[in-house]
Amino acid sequence: MVTVNGEQISGSAEPRTLLTDFLRDELRLTGTHVGCEHGVCGACTVIIDGFATRSCLMFAVQADGSEIQTIEGLASAEGEMHPLQKLFAKHRALQCGFCTPGMLMTAIDLVQSSKKLSEEDIRIGMSAALCRCTGYEGIVNAVSEYAEQLQDEEASNVG
Amino acid sequence: MLDEPLRQSGGYIGQSVPRREDRNLLLGKGQFVADIQLPGMLHVAFARSPLAHATIGTVDVDSALAINGVHFAASGSDVCAELPPINGMQVVTPQGWRDRVDTDILIPDQPLVPEDRVRYVGEAYAMVAADSRYIAEDALEQIEVEFEPLPPLPDAESALKDDAVLVHEQLGRNVAALLHTRKGDGADAMESCPHRLSRRFVHHRYAAMPMETRGVVAEYDGRTDTLTVWSSTQVVHWVRREISTALEMPEERIRCVAPDVGGGFGGKGHVYPEDILVAWLAKKLRRPIKWVEDRHEHILNAAHSRDNIYDVEIGFDDRGKIHVVTSSFIVDSGAYTPVGAGIAGNSIAHMLGPYDIPHYETDCKVVLTNRTPNAPYRGAGRPEVGFAMERAVDIVANHLDLDPAVVRFRNMIPPEAMPYDVGLTYRDGVPMVYDSGDYPEALRRALDALGGLEVIRKRQKDAWANGKYLGLGLGCYVEGTGVGPFEGATIKIDSTGKIMVATGACPQGQGHETVFAQFAADMWHVPIEDVYVTVADTADITLGYGTIASRSTVTASGAIKIASDKIQEKALTIAANMLEVGEADLEMRDAGVGVVGIPDMHVTWREIACAAKPGWDNQRPIGVDAGLEATSYYEPPTVTWAYAANAALVWIDTDTGKLEIEKYVEVHDAGVLVNPGLADGQVKGGLVQGLGGALLEELAYDEQGQLLTGSFADYLMPTASDVPPIEVLHMETPSPLNVFGVKGLGEGGAIAPPVVIANAVCDALRPFKAELNSTPVRWQDIAAITENADRQQNMRADQEA
């Protein structure tokens, strides 16, 4: 039993089935991509129990009982994009788009788990995922603006 | 030659229109080949050679077939019994080029799965199909094979030895192509030069390495005898052509689609054996077949690139004016050379770069070895030759104690010399004429962006005085872009009045759907939302060429223009009939056609399209054919010449060899920018790939021909934290060769970084009088320079004592 994007799902998987293949082939959530299958490229990153995790380095059975968020769960049910998705478009943070789901999930975790992020923090944090097209400038700018947005929100909540 | 660039005020061309591609990709709703799942689909896996060079003995696939869930297994002999090899000449060169460049070309065909011999680590020798990829990989382990090792040829120099074993015995030599060309007095001009220097430059092997590996899915429909093939490729029409040839099916019965493609950069720019094998198996087994490469397979088996050795001699005078350049270079093409001598042909054409050099002679050997096949990757011969030439320019400057920037200015073609006849022939067979540009201005702007030459040199002296090392690295290039032979476009105006555009281009992230919509919206005077663009689908256009060689913006826009002109001519005739005026009184405006000066007299494209329909009550004048659609092919007269000046400031820590790029600047000119935001992204993305190649990425082999860097743990890709501050400045000198004034820009960024970094390191370490003439630029090599210098100093001190 797992919770995927808020929905409880039970299924069976061979012990050797990777979580990434379970998500893609069984649940047909193909937004999670497979770039290297050895935990370097980050294209398969999903959020498991609040933490960005490489779904290619986990067996599906290891996720039993956990809560998983994939790219498909980022926008609202009505199709309204998440603020970070909008910022990726604004800053041209994607070209081929293959790394993008993993980038977004990596960035969500990074921004949520740190209070204040310098550009260097963002570059180091985002180095968990590879992009071959953009040279990262747009990605760093998008994540940076999203982090600022969250801080502003926090500040206005406190105020 | 055409009139003023067609760029209307208030139009879409020139605006950073947001990409229509983004939404699906951001939502995780893109469709890449690996995402395609069809009922009853089988999964293919390939058994790949662990040896670089060996004779194949028996291959026993029976135990593999015995596994539950395995439906098919075949050795190389099984495959070769049914399928011919891929033609070695996927790209033909025109007669005009062969007439003007001396060529001796013997390109080997590539067996889809070889039956007698494996020629590189990673070459397939058997294949299986099973219910899942997991089971298919289980089955691979059961295949029994006997290899008889042959002496490996791990690099080009060993393959050129007299006693070297032959990679392809039927060729009688290990050279796939010999090229030679000459300008002016060639090498003979060397005699009269006051100064001559010779050097060897080595550009190492690295690769496109898109984030999405390759993959193919195919489905055969027996009822209609049609095949549909989804391939992660840059060239759907080539894939269709090769499948048609191999399976002896008409091209029109095969549909090839490249859905969302996760990066290509040249690595997916030709047909691979798997494209044909998967299609073949789908037809043979009457079941959908899928093969998706894993990363290890990709690194071993998808084409590598670069890997050249240049021997250069350069003759010049006291002022640093270069009179003659000669080079003799070898390209390690690996076991096959799927794009023939294309890379070498590019190198030959690009050596002289932005400089006015009267005499030139070069020869090249494309050498077959036991490495992975070498094919074009972003830059395709230009980074390699640029490394040799631009290092040589710096070495000339050093020799004369002149500033490398000054030597470049003294040799550059001035803007008033445009168009400039180079005196060579491009690989499209046309004499090379640089069409437009201001090369010295680009270099000036690049230097200014780093503070200006004077300031840079002062900072450098101050650094040296403080025991620190700051270097200026320069790299200039020109780039033939938008090469032919052609691109196609089909335009249809349907009865809703929307503009349908299909082209033969096959994007992999460039944003073609957006850019082509910008062109069409301006041509048709419609809001961009009224333009629908499809790409990379052979069902939508009969002939296409594909997205390689920085060509799609130039060639597809030309095709869209010709097809649009054709339809608009007819539409005006019909509109004149509808409005009962003469055609001369009409203009295109507001999503349709109106009478000049009379706002109310206007018919929309929708109304015209309905009027143009065949059948009763149509409103066509007598003699005008029904329908509003056209397919046209643009055959560019020759290439447009983009160019750039690159400059970087680099700090060297002499204790550790660590290198830190303070700032990297590229001033780039690709003519009119259709979408400046996307253009900027192309150049910056290319630059980071170039920096990866300069500093991190390496496909290293041992002497047995074993690849040592077969994972991302060993093949280091640049991450966000590796990227230095980068500034890209655009100049926009229109090309006179097309109506839009555009030039291509996909590859440019990747060309200069390796030489810029090497030049910067040498410039910083001038006090040590050291040269770094090979890539990648390693900290170990930098540290060795300073260690040697320290050692020599200590020895001298000891001797004096």
Description of the molecule:
The complex is a heterodimer of chains A (159) and B (801). Chain A is of the alpha+beta class and 159 residues long. Chain A has two domains: 2-73, Ubiquitin-like (UB roll) (Roll); 83-158, [2Fe-2S]-binding domain (DNA polymerase, domain 1). In chain A, 38% of the residues lie in helices and 11% in strands. Chain A contains five helices and five strands, in the order E-E-H-E-E-E-H-H-H-H. Chain A has a five-stranded mixed sheet with strand order 2-1-5-3-4, covered by helices on one side. In chain A, helix 3 (100-113) runs parallel beside helix 5 (137-158) and helix 4 packs across helix 5. Helix content of chain B is 29%, strand content 26%. In chain B, a hairpin with a 2-residue loop joins strand 23 and strand 24 (592-595). Chain B folds into three domains: 22-29 and 484-634, Aldehyde Oxidoreductase, domain 4; 33-150 and 209-301, Aldehyde Oxidoreductase, domain 3; 305-413 and 428-483 and 637-792, Aldehyde Oxidoreductase, domain 4, CATH 3.30.365. In chain B, the strands form seven sheets. In chain B, strands 3-6-1-13-10-11-12 form a seven-stranded mixed sheet, sandwiched between helices. Chain B has a six-stranded mixed sheet with strand order 4-8-16-15-14-9. Chain B has a four-stranded mixed sheet with strand order 19-27-28-29, with helices on both faces. Chain B is an alpha+beta fold. At the A-B interface, helix 2, helix 3, helix 4 and helix 5 of A face helix 1 and helix 18 of B.
